[in-house]
Design goal:
about 120 residues, two-stranded parallel ribbon
């Protein structure tokens, strides 16, 4: 089993840019809440809390990946690379098929090819 935790860090400048896009672009208006802008006043305290949470919950078995998220394409590449790395480390293999199972499969194939 593998657990990956990702913290996607958006800078304050990028957050402001995205909020303004949500206000200005008709197809993005639904994403914005006035509470979002008010919550920005607590950003420093939130970042401190996130850092503390990450420090206190990181383990070898369940690491945190803190990913810069200002550029969405880059964020996706970093997350995908981390997931691929974790999957590779699991060293997954198909189950070994026993001799009796191979005989069962051969018999089933023979029946299927014979139209049964």
């Amino acid at each position: 089993m593998a657990i990956c935790k990702f913290f996607l860090h958006v800078s304050k400048q990028e957050q402001k840019k995205r909020f303004l896009e949500r206000i200005e672009e008709p197809q993005k208006k639904w994403k914005f809440s006035a509470a979002d802008a008010k919550e920005r006043h607590y950003r420093k305290a939130c970042m401190d809390a996130y850092e503390d949470m990450i420090r206190k919950t990181v383990t070898k078995a369940a690491p945190w990946y803190v990913v810069p998220a200002d550029n969405k394409w880059f964020t996706r590449v970093v997350v995908a690379a981390a997931v691929i790395g974790v999957l590779d480390d699991l060293d997954l293999r198909y189950p070994k098929v026993s001799d009796s199972k191979l005989k069962e499969l051969a018999a089933a194939k023979k029946d299927l090819l014979a139209g049964k």
